[in-house]
Amino acid sequence: MDATASGARVNATGENAAIEAVAAPVTGPPQAAPATAIVAPAAAGPAALVLGGLSLSHLLNDMIQSLLPAIYPLLKQSYALDFAQIGVLTLAFQLTASLLQPVVGLVTDKRPMPFSLAAGMLLSLCGLLLLSHAGTYGLLILAACCVGLGSAIFHPEASRVARLASGGRYGLAQSVFQVGGNAGSALGPLLAAFIVVPLGQASVALFAVAALAGFVVLSLVGRWYRERLRTGAARPRKAGAGGRDLPRGKVVATIAVLLVLIFSKYFYMASLSSYFTFYLIHRFGVSVQESQLYLFVFLGAVAAGTVAGGPIGDRFGRKVVIWGSILGVLPFTLALPHANLFWTVALTVPIGLILASAMPAILVYAQELLPGRVGLVGGLFFGFAFGMGGLGAAVLGEVADRTSIEFVYGLCAFLPAIGLLAAFLPRLEAPRAA
Q1: Second label for 109, Cα 20 to 30 Å away, from 60, 328, 374, 407?
Q2: Which residues form the Major facilitator superfamily (MFS) profile domain (predicted)?
Q3: Which residues contact 175 (CB under 8 A, 6 or more apart)?
Q4: By residue range, what is the domain housing residue 345?
């Protein structure tokens, strides 16, 4: 980098053009590719730090959020809740996040708000403190909604900053960003098992330290983003022809297919993230702490799968990853309801790895389909994913109350078969050369 700068320091106009090239989606023919080579030196240093900060703050944000489902067994016993009420609690969090995320994304596409990231973390902090002292079911619902609001503000703008800092490797950037969230989701149950379960609901307030740390990190990221806005490097770009000049109807149909794939993925994920502990306790008689450790195994596999999905999509194409990640999990989901304790836990590893690899590829695919709408795409897809998780939790909780938790897992085993719809996705890019 020093050699590049010596003798001919890059002027402000050149630097802005280079960074803008990083943020811009590829909408034209392959000859536009050399822009990546131009931006690499300018983006390598600060962009790596920004991606690291986004990933860390995503970890802290989602760790806080995952505390709620992790302490469901504790709340169920303390408040005498049934499965349907547990499902409604999840629905309150997920729908609050999902309904607002597309709105936040649409607004910030037109008017970016660098410090909205830090503001979202403060809302999550408020929800966390309320959860630790909630004395009624109504206050639990309110706490869940506060955490959901924080998430709705955080995800769309964070997804935009990750793309801006990508250096042209959009899949890798999304993987780095999303793996932080998945790692946080995996840590939540583990910390709940060793801190909240022994010390009680009030100990949830101890995690306020994590929220404050996230606020500091996101404030620094916001300053970096603000500077890019001042120089015009991150100025919102008008949407061009979607999906490399695909007809509008084809673009709409493709987005619909992607959302259906998100439905199948997150409906199934809800069965594990919200009810896997109950399934293990009811079927195999394990303790609450043991069940949370087994849930950590699954969520850890989800985090690892996210790392792989983006770079593989950069190399071989998004559609290849989407095909394999959703349909490829079917043999494992079909086997899980019939396995013993050891194999039940073991099967959650490939399930988590394969399912999680889809999200970075789906998100970047949609961003390439709708150039210039990074915030809207992030809000729509993160929001829809949250909504499907919440709806899945509510519906499956009601089904579990009317039938059994074992029946729920037998039913959900077939959901990944919806992945066959990936056959209708058009190919948007050629694989990169080795």
Answers
A1: 60
A2: 50-431
A3: 306, 307, 308, 309, 310, 311, 360
A4: 40-424
Q: In whole angstroms, what is the distance from residue 410 CA to residue 399 CA?
A: 12
Residue 328: what pLDDT?
83
> Which residue positions in the chain have pLDDT lower than 70?
1-46, 232-245, 386, 390, 429-434
In a domain, 431, yes or no: no
Kindly give the residue spans of alpha helices, DSSP state H, lying in 232-287.
248-284
CA nearest 266: which of 94, 399, 86, 71?
A: 94
Q: Which two tokens stand for residue 210?
A: 């994590």
User: Does the residue 51 lie in any domain?
Assistant: yes
Contact present, 386 and 92 (Cβ < 8 Å)? no
User: Cα separations (Å) of 362 from 41, 213, 260, 366, 381?
Assistant: 28, 30, 11, 6, 9
**What is the separation, in whole angstroms, between the first and last Cα of the chain?**
24
The closest alpha carbon to 99, from 373, 394, 383, belongs to: 383
pLDDT value of position 235 = 52
Number of H helices, E strands in the chain: 18, 0
Contacts of 132 (CB under 8 A, 6+ apart): 201, 202, 203, 204, 205
The residue assigned the tokens 């199948």 is 264
Tell me what pLDDT residue 81 has: 87
Assign residue 236 the CATH number of its domain: 1.20.1250.20
377 CB neighbour count, 10 Å cutoff? 30
Domain-located, residue 345: yes
Q: Which residues contact 359 (CB under 8 A, 6 or more apart)?
A: 174, 178, 265, 306, 309, 385
Return the pLDDT at 232: 66
